[in-house]
Specification:
This is Alkaline phosphatase. The chain has a ten-stranded mixed sheet with strand order 5-6-4-3-7-1-8-16-2-17, sandwiched between helices. A three-stranded mixed sheet has the order 10-11-14. Strands 9-15 form a two-stranded antiparallel ribbon. It contains 17 helices and 17 strands. Strand 5, helix 12 and strand 6 (300-303) form a beta-alpha-beta unit. With 567 residues, it is of the alpha/beta class. It binds zinc ion.
Length: 567
């Protein structure tokens, strides 16, 4: 006789006796047993392989009922480095900017019906990086840190091993199945997260030719930029939008927006021109005005900055005019809707939440999170929950902390105020044990450490602070007269590091649309791929047609990319 769970005891009180006592684990919305996937027990970590991760991820999605989904389109939003603390702080900032106390506000995805927690570790790293984590979400198999859609067997940087263990991505699967695809990011398009859609590389840093070792190039390994415009499998993305122009252009070519800069490729290739030759009807855009003028019914390549795009906080100052993440999301969905007859798969990455955290600047991280909320809202308004699965998640966490006892409505970027005790009457700053005020938000490590550094004296740091040459901080800074709500204020960081680090804690997953009911519980990050594939009949059928499904039609075998050349 199983012990009654506390929820059952509550249910007993409301006379729902039979539903509770006869099957404590029953989930009426998910006929899970029929899709159960057997996963072999292995010694961990030695027994882990890409094939094992793929099957284990399939089992998690299937047991939650993802196979019941009937999605036509899938949109995956990734807030890079968007920890749960970042979500909570950003929702408050958004609410406060709207004139509310803030805590009750909801970011757009916080209205979604389904949530889960995603466990983000890489196969070789407790606190993961974006390459391994996006590989997990894009291919259904966890991977090492630093690799782009490559299984865990070869070491990072192993060219031949990377080729032998390339993993099929969700975007390659979609393109090979007659769906249209899009990739949108605020980072360089060649950066880890967008790269994992259509490129395969044993090292995330091989973004252009002269960042790829000569030995690897001679052995046939191609840089990420060249793979994005000329993918190994099939047609590639129908819409590509982001930054990173200099990785696509030769050193001899001046940049259109910043004439004193030029492309950075040494091999003489102009990948924009190559893309245009391969897409004679397509449009290339490098600023917002060109994006607005581009036709809807043709492929699009847009590269809005030589490097990463601007932080949303700084975007208005861009010389050439940059679209917002919501603008890019809207422009992409509208095109994919016009161009697709069978559906589409889209990645939208808010990449610079992560960068702002690395810089130790919570303001820019929160504002970029709000920009992601606007982008998700745009997708919600342009699509139907009847046919489009929208999933929002992060690849990994950061060390942002949300602490102290600020009063309801206290400005989230301010010092803690309003917890009345003998040290701090209501409405005045709360004081630490040495009598100094402190902010609600802080970082466990990073360039915001208040020790003297090579570029700024001891005390609070201002963005942009390289964080080199730290001497240990002696005591806390006096913040009484410091404007911690200024966009360039850097939150205090306990441990001095030039770049604040990722965090190893779980991140959230929020979902709406067909198959979203399966997004629940505590899942491994690679199960997200399976949740998306199992919820989309055309994608799961494409895998079954190649003999990769079990008797119940659940894709359980690791695909070989060679079997998915364009049809
Ligand atoms: Zn990062």
């Amino acid at each position: 006789m199983p012990l009654l769970r506390p929820t059952c005891l509550a249910a007993l009180a409301t006379l729902l006796v039979s539903a509770c006592t006869t099957s404590p684990g029953a989930r009426p919305e998910a006929p899970a047993d029929s899709w159960a996937v057997a996963v072999p027990a292995i010694n961990r970590p030695e027994g882990e392989t890409a094939a094992w991760w793929f099957r284990a991820g399939a089992a998690q999605a299937a047991e939650r009922g993802a196979m019941a989904g009937n999605a036509r389109n899938v949109i995956l939003f990734v807030g890079d480095g968007m920890s749960l603390t970042t979500v909570a702080a950003a929702r408050i900032l958004a609410g406060q900017r709207a004139g509310q106390p803030g805590e009750e506000h909801r970011l757009s995805w916080e209205h979604f019906p389904a949530t889960a927690l995603s466990r983000t570790y890489n196969t070789d790293l407790q606190t993961p990086d974006s390459a391994g984590t996006m590989t997990a979400m894009a291919t259904g198999a966890k991977a090492r840190a630093g690799v782009i859609s490559v299984g865990q067997a070869p070491l990072r940087g192993d060219c031949a091993g990377g080729r032998d263990h390339a993993l099929l991505s969700l975007w390659e699967l979609a393109a090979a199945s007659g769906l249209r695809t899009g990739v949108v990011t605020t980072a360089r398009l060649t950066h880890a997260t967008p790269a994992a859609t259509f490129a395969h590389s044993p090292d995330r840093n091989w973004e252009r030719d002269n960042e790829t070792p000569a030995t690897a190039r001679e052995a046939g390994c191609r840089d990420i930029a060249s793979q994005l415009v000329d993918p190994a499998l099939g047609r590639g993305a129908d819409v590509l939008m982001g930054g990173g122009r200099h990785n696509f252009l030769p050193v001899t070519q001046p940049d259109p927006e910043y004439p004193r800069q030029s492309g950075k490729r040494n091999d003489g290739r102009d990948l924009v021109a190559e893309w245009q030759r391969a897409h004679p009807t397509g449009t290339y855009a490098w600023n917002a005005a060109q994006l607005s003028a581009a036709p809807m019914d043709a492929p699009l390549l847009a590269l809005f900055e030589p490097d990463h795009m601007r932080f949303e906080h700084d975007r208005a100052g861009d010389a050439g005019g940059e679209p917002s993440l919501a603008d890019m999301t809207r422009a992409t969905i509208e095109r994919l809707q016009v161009q697709s007859t069978q559906g589409y798969v889209l990645l939208v990455e808010a990449a610079r939440i992560d960068h702002a955290h690395h810089y130790g600047n919570a303001h820019r991280a929160l504002v970029d999170t709000m920009a992601l909320s606007d982008a998700v809202q745009a997708a919600v308004e342009l699509t139907s929950a009847d046919d489009t699965l929208v999933m929002v998640t992060a690849d990994h966490s950061h060390t942002l902390t949300f602490a102290g006892y600020p009063a309801r409505g206290n400005p989230i970027l301010d010092k803690v105020r309003g917890f009345a005790d003998e040290d701090a009457p209501a409405g005045e700053y709360a004081l630490d044990a040495t009598g100094r005020p402190y902010t609600t938000l802080g970082y466990a490590n990073g360039p915001g450490n208040t020790g003297a550094s090579a570029s700024q004296s001891a005390g609070p740091k201002r963005f942009l602070h390289p964080g080199k040459g730290f001497k240990p901080a002696t005591g806390r800074p006096e913040l009484t007269d410091v404007d911690t709500r200024h966009p360039d204020y850097m939150q205090e960081a306990l441990v001095p590091l030039a770049s604040e680090s990722h965090g190893g804690d779980d991140v959230g997953v929020w979902a709406r649309g067909p198959g979203s009911a399966a997004v629940r519980g505590s899942i491994e990050q690679n199960a997200l791929f399976h949740l998306m594939v199992q919820a989309t009949p055309r994608l799961r059928d494409a895998l079954c047609e190649r003999g990769l499904c079990n008797a119940q039609g659940v894709p359980v075998e690791l695909p070989d990319p060679a079997d998915f050349k364009a049809r």
